[in-house]
Amino acid sequence: xxNKIYDWVDERLDITPIWRDIADHEVPEHVNPxxxxxxxxxxxxxxxxxxxxxxxxSGMFLTMYYxxxxxxAWESVYYLQNHVAxxxxxxxxxHWGASLVIVMxxxxxxxxxxxGAYKKPRELNWLVGVGIFFVMLALGLxxxxxxxxxxxxxxxxxxxxxxxxxxxxxxxLKTLIAGDASIVGAQTITRFFAIHVFFLPAVLxxxxxxxxxxxxxxxxxxxx
Amino acid sequence: xxxxxxxxRQFLNYTLTGxxxxxxxxxxxxxxxxxxxxxxxxxxxxxxxxTNQKVADLTTEPTRVDYSFEQQDGWYSSExxxxxxxxxxxxxxxxxxxPVCKHLGCTVNWNGDKANENxxxxxxxxxxxxxxxxxxxGTPPIAALDVFPTKxxxxxxxxxxxxxx
Lengths: 224, 165
Known about the structure:
Chain A: InterPro entries: Cyt_b/b6_N, Cytb/b6-like_sf, Di-haem_cyt_TM. Chain A: This is Cytochrome b6. The complex is a heterodimer. Chain A is built from 9 helices and no strands. By secondary structure, chain A is mainly alpha-helical. In chain A, 23% of the residues are buried. Chain B is α+β, with helices and mostly antiparallel strands. Chain B folds into 2 domains: 41 residues; 111 residues, 3-layer Sandwich (Rieske Iron-sulfur Protein), CATH 2.102.10.10. Chain B has 2 helices and 10 strands. In chain B, strands 2-3-4-8 form a 4-stranded antiparallel sheet, with no helix packed on it. In chain B, strands 1-10-9 form a 3-stranded antiparallel sheet, with no helix packed on it. A 3-stranded antiparallel sheet of chain B has the order 5-6-7, with no helix packed on it. The chains are: A mainly alpha, B alpha+beta.
């Protein structure tokens, strides 16, 4: 059944070369944990991507209930967590996944660093990776505010004070991210929501695409 | 043993697809159940809403009865208002009609049109209903007005959820 549908499409569109390009490539021996168990360190990049996929999916589903508004944000989070089936699990996936992304990404960075895999010709990919790192941190920071509980509020106040301490343009930067010169409130939460859900993921997708295209083009670095 | 032995490649393909499918399902199942929750939420027994209308004061002439109730919408609760046209029929039975026109949902009024006495009239497109809520043929509405289930509690009128006939 599946084969027939595949053949039907393939006959018309010749899709086999396309997915071969994407999925069908050899795993070098030094990267395969079946040959050298220590090769598990090569899994961290893939795991970061896997957790990122979970973050995207669970985030999409959370927005079915969440409202970025000072009156309703906390109420809607409480509702989705306590009155909607599997709400605790879906929110839990997003909550714990957020920490896990940082952990996996950090381990991936350490591996690349200590193996010297960032060296010529892969310097550009290292730079893109650093970009992804900061985008992920920013995603964690903006997502932290959204439940609009006391922890979120005060963490954001601290963030804004740190931003404010920037020389010369601190005041302006602070107003830019908080939406108001002195209040952390209605305009802050909508801004953080927009950044968390639209702007940063858009940047992230671009950077991830560049990251993956480069690694396919250059291949994985050789054994130590 | 059958002639078609499962090859090593097939076996690995099946196990990988199986395990992968199981993991994907474990990930997606909670999210999908989370998303479809409103469809599966138990419909609460429709509660009767108390009004300030004494049943004893009702006549055969339809009277407008306004009522209000607490509406719980997810995490948001609000005070909502509604209206019913209520009268006693010839058997002394209480009849409560929904004022929502069955044409396009405007609000109908008893004796709203001077040219059509003793009819419910919809100002939007001239829909007419007789006193028992039946739509007058030749006017836009395609069905009779919805009816509220009613009951009397301590002399006061209580209304259920309006149902189509």
